[in-house]
Design a protein that fits this description.
By secondary structure, the chain is α+β, with helices and mostly antiparallel strands. Helices cover 33% and strands 25% of the residues. The protein has nine helices and 13 strands. The strands form two sheets. It has a nine-stranded mixed sheet. It has a four-stranded antiparallel sheet with strand order 7-8-9-10. α2 runs antiparallel to α3 and α8 crosses α9. The longest helix is centred in the first third of the chain and has 23 residues. It is globular.
């Protein structure tokens, strides 16, 4: 038995990169901690890495403080269109949905695409038809729209508004990576996309190698940041490429994010794990809410260089 098995299981989650307003920062931190605890509890009971990442992300989709599920940003018409993906590192199977509407938990629908179809991604109305065939209930669009999202939508309709800058100024995409007790690895990512985006715009999240990647032989990545920049450098696969060359998750993340900044002027962050359970939450934006659970400890932070630790089990 290898010594590093004591490092497993592990789950790492993020709640988006950028500059999170003070009044929402605490909500974001509470949200990612709760998601990490939920994922870790599943892993501790012998659940799979896929179960853990999907449940952790679904919990954040249900939290109106994040740009995913309930709380998603609005497109230029004031509507919600969401993207999500999952990937199984054991088989390299993946499932995704893009520009999907009226679904409370797109990440769960993405998993169904992976498990119940021969395809990797379903989009828009096709994804909705598939959801109905799987018995996934549609929810009223109003239930996904928060007052905060409406306020930001109106603000960004102004001619001088900069949606990319505004996007980096708020909580964004959510994601998770995990390794279970059997050494299997998975990732999941979900987002409402970019504020005031064109109708039908799809970002990095549902694209394999951009919005996530998982391979039992190397590790897993879930990113956050400006989707177009992430796509240009295939950020998730780029991180894992550096890990294949022998870099640690931290070194690989730093190299990939530095390249994205220098090459396409993109900011963002990643959560990364390797097969041994070594993990990092790395970002070059001002903030990224993140949390990790491993060996009975809950790690979390928001600002660069910030790293708090407490027991996973909350004191009663």
């Amino acid at each position: 038995m290898y010594l590093w098995t004591a490092m497993l299981p592990v789950v790492v989650v993020h709640g988006g990169a950028g500059h999170i307003p003070k009044e929402r920062a605490e909500l974001s931190t509470i949200g990612v901690k709760e998601a990490a605890r939920t994922g870790y509890a599943i892993l501790q009971k012998g659940g799979s890495a896929m179960d853990a990442v999907v449940e952790a992300v679904a919990l954040m989709e249900n939290n109106p403080g994040f740009n995913a599920g309930q709380g998603s940003v609005l497109n230029v018409k004031g509507e919600v269109e969401m993207d999500a993906m999952v990937m199984d590192g054991r088989t390299l199977d993946s499932g995704a949905v893009s520009a999907v509407r009226r679904i409370a938990n797109p990440v769960q629908l993405a998993r169904l695409v992976m498990e119940k179809t021969k395809h990797l991604c379903l989009t828009a109305e096709g994804a909705s038809k598939f959801a109905r065939s799987m018995g996934v209930p549609e929810v009223p669009e109003e239930s996904l729209i928060t007052d905060y999202a409406k306020m930001r939508w109106k603000k960004n309709l102004q001619p001088d508004a900069n949606p990319v800058e505004c996007q980096m100024g708020k909580m964004g995409t959510v994601g998770a990576v995990a390794v279970d007790k059997d050494g299997n690895i998975a990732c999941a990512t979900s987002t409402g996309g970019m504020i005031n985006k064109m109708e039908g715009r799809v970002g990095d999240t549902p694209c394999v190698g951009c919005g996530g990647y998982a391979d039992n032989n190397i590790g897993a990545v879930s990113p956050t940041g400006h989707g177009e920049a992430i796509m240009k450098v295939t950020l998730s696969r780029l991180v894992l490429f550096h890990m294949e060359q022998g870099k640690t998750p931290e070194e690989a993340s730093d190299l990939a994010l530095t390249y994205m900044k220098e090459r396409v002027d993109g900011l963002g962050g990643v959560v990364v794990v390797d097969p041994k359970g070594t993990w990092t939450a790395w970002f070059n934006s001002l903030q990224m809410s993140w949390a990790a659970a491993q060996q009975g400890e809950l790690h979390y932070g928001l600002y660069r260089g910030e790293h708090f630790v407490e027991p996973v089990q909350e004191k009663i």
